[in-house]
Each structure stands twice: as C-alpha cells, then as structure tokens.
Amino acid sequence: MLIPKEVIREGTHAYRGKNGDVQFLTATPELIKYWHDTGNQMRAYGLPVPVPLEHDETAHPMTPAERLLNNAGHVHNYEIRQIDEGGKKISALFSNVEIKDARVQEKIKDGTINWTSPWFT
C-alpha cells in the first residue's frame, strides 16, 4: 500500500549539526524541485530509498545490511504538492512510501510520524 508522506516543506528549518550545534536549512521551491527530480532519478536507476522509523543523528549513506535495520519500508516515488500554510500556498515535497506494517501506516496517516530528513546525493 502506498501512503503519501510529507518530507519537507518550503521554509527555514532548524536541525542539529554534527557537533550538536543548531543549524538552519532554507527549503526553497527550487531546492524542493531539485530533491524531487534527484529522488525520482535515484528510483529510476533502481536505487532503494529506505524509510527509517526514526531519524538517526549519525545518518550516512548506508550499506545494504544497514538499510534493513529500523526500516519501515521504501520510497516508491516523489511528488511536489502545493499546501496551504496560514492562508498561503507553499511547495512541499512528498514521498509515496510502501509500508507493510499497519501500525506504521496509521502513524503516518494520523501525523504521529511527522517529519523525515531527505538525503539526496
């Protein structure tokens, strides 16, 4: 079953850097389009994109064995949607994810699992 999952929306987002310091990333419509195009190219080349249950602060390109740990499913494809944020339309990147576990499906649908961290190379 494919479930749409928001990855990131337009705006400035705070995150913890490698040293634990607070850093900021501004997701522009152009950057969201780049992630969309790159993610779909990765999928077109047959590269699997895992959907981990939790964000790992030591995230890095994974070995095949590491991809299996804490993985809830895989990304099928990416799409850009326009969403309403405070009366303003903004761009958001969504992934359509294949999740087998019904409990995880419900957590994604009801917003319990909210955000992910895209890694496109």
Topology readout:
Blueprint: E1 2-9, E2 11-16, E3 22-27, H1 29-44, E4 50-52, H2 64-68, E5 71-85, E6 88-99, H3 102-109
Antiparallel strand pairs: 1-6, 2-3, 4-5, 5-6
Please describe what this structure looks like:
It is built from 3 helices and 6 strands; from the N terminus they run βββαβαββα. With 121 residues, the protein is an alpha+beta fold. Strands 1-6-5-4 form a 4-stranded antiparallel sheet. A two-stranded antiparallel sheet has the order 2-3. It is globular and about 40 Å long.
Global shape:
globular
Roughly what fraction of the amino acids lie in strands?
35-45%
User: Largest sheet, order of strands side by side?
Assistant: 1-6-5-4
Q: How many strands, which pairing sense, and closed or not: the largest β-sheet?
A: 4 strands, antiparallel
Strand pairing plus helix content: what structural class?
Answer: alpha+beta
Number of strands: 6
Please report the number of helical segments: 3
Question: What is the rounded distance between the termini?
Answer: 27 Å
Tell me, rounded to a whole number, the average pLDDT: 83
